[in-house]
DNA sequence: GTCTATAAAGAGATAGAC
DNA sequence: GTCTATCTCTTTATAGAC
């Protein structure tokens, strides 16, 4: 992962030493997540890549552009969940389940960029645009919860907005501790979240 | 919960224009939360306070010290929850409920410093010490959940560690959207969290 | 307790050689 | 595609006047 660039066995195009944008982006996002975007200097990034700053600037225009590309990946994935067929028809509670499951899957598949997204504070235009898109996603889910309440499948003693935020509080918190390669995969993780979110942790007895 | 601010039990407040440590700390933590600790320069902080940097350095030794004092407040509060009588005896499920309720109350009472705590990444000794104390808190709660599972009051198809993390994922996410002065207070908020955590969002039907 | 002024280091970004 | 060297601005922090 953080290993040296390919030398001889180039996959497809380049047979040259050095990085391409994709490799640089992957390591960059990892470092952003370790230290925080603001606390990561371009010099530190270049060090981690085994490059100089100037070489890094050959691949990207700015530090902020690196952030923007990573955030686009995360947001694209999440927004795609809402476009999935399972989220488009049927009882609202089932669609909600599909959205939560899809969100967990995206989170696991794009863990680094989603982690970065969830830590964005709005310090620049790029960050504020990302926050806007997060809010829009949230509102779509809240509408789904409200519909499920109307259909009688979700409790109404807690508001739809709060329900949505609590559920995504659980989902989003996964980035704080979930690491791939362990016992649980995306499917098990989603099942756990849905079990707790839908039925709670208390036993019937 | 939080320790006494025994900076000076001394006489004579400064009846002078200007700030004392407490006022500076409050505004500082607020700005740290708005922009992020790393993205906040001491100059920006001083501007917000209507002071110069030099005046601010008269009150505090370093930017990091300001962070440390704020984190101590949040951690002291959370750790106090575990020392509360309601968390010390009785069925584990009841103690767990008391801990969650207490955590929400501390979060609401000390919203700025808890928010700051939850965003710490471990970039310095101060931050790493805070992360260690968070982990210790987490382990205490996980033990409580495990006990509740043994007592048959919490589902066992999800591990105690995951249950704990999901519940505190909900609790901690409150800092992302809860703002005092609205319709809900700490008690209602805690009730909502416990309702969802214990029984889930799905209606029986 | 606050100010102006400045030190010393680090930040993001660029120029031009190879 | 990467390098060395450098520009310019900002950063944390300090010195010393009032």
Describe this structure in words.
Chain A is mostly helical and 205 residues long. Helices cover 66% and strands 0% of the residues of chain A. Chain A is built from 9 helices and no strands. In chain A, helix 5 (92-109) packs antiparallel against helix 9 (186-199). The longest helix of chain A is centred in the last third of the chain and has 26 residues, at 125-150. Chain A is elongated. Chain A starts with 20 loop residues before the first helix and ends in a 6-residue tail after the last helix. The interface between A and B is large, with 43 and 43 residues. The structure holds a DNA duplex (18 and 18 nucleotides).
Characteristics:
homodimer, 205 residues, mainly alpha, 66% helix, elongated, disordered N terminus, DNA-binding
Radius of gyration of chain A: 20 Å
How widely separated are the two ends of chain A? 48 Å
Number of helices of chain A: 9
Tell me the greatest interface. A-B, 43 and 43 residues
* Molecular shape of chain A: elongated
The H-and-E topology of chain A, N to C, reads as: HHHHHHHHH
Helix content range of chain A: 55-70%
Largest sheet geometry of chain A: none
Total E-strand runs of chain A? 0
Structural class call of chain A reads mainly alpha
In terms of DSSP E residues, the strand content of chain A is under 5%
What is the oligomer described by this structure? homodimer
What is the mean predicted local confidence, pLDDT of chain A?
91
List the uncertain runs of chain A. Answer: 1-17
């Amino acid at each position: 992962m953080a290993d040296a660039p390919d030398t001889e066995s180039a996959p497809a195009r380049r047979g040259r030493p050095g990085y391409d944008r994709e490799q640089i982006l992957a390591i960059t996002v990892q470092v952003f997540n370790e230290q925080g975007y603001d606390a990561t200097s371009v010099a530190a990034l270049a060090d981690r890549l085994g490059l100089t700053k100037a070489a890094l600037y050959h691949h990207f225009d700015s530090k902020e552009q690196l952030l923007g590309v990573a955030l686009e990946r995360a947001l694209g994935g999440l927004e795609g969940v809402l476009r999935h067929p399972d989220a488009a028809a049927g009882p609202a509670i089932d669609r909600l389940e599909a959205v939560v499951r899809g969100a967990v899957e995206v989170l696991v598949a794009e863990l680094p960029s989603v982690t970065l997204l969830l830590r964005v504070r709005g310090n620049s235009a790029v960050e504020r645009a990302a926050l806007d898109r997060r809010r829009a996603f949230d509102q779509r889910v809240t509408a789904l919860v409200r519909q499920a309440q109307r259909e009688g499948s979700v409790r109404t003693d807690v508001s739809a907005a709060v329900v949505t935020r609590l559920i995504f509080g659980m989902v989003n918190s996964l980035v704080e501790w979930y690491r791939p390669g362990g016992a649980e995969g995306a499917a098990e993780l989603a099942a756990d979240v849905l079990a707790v979110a839908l039925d709670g942790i208390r036993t019937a007895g």
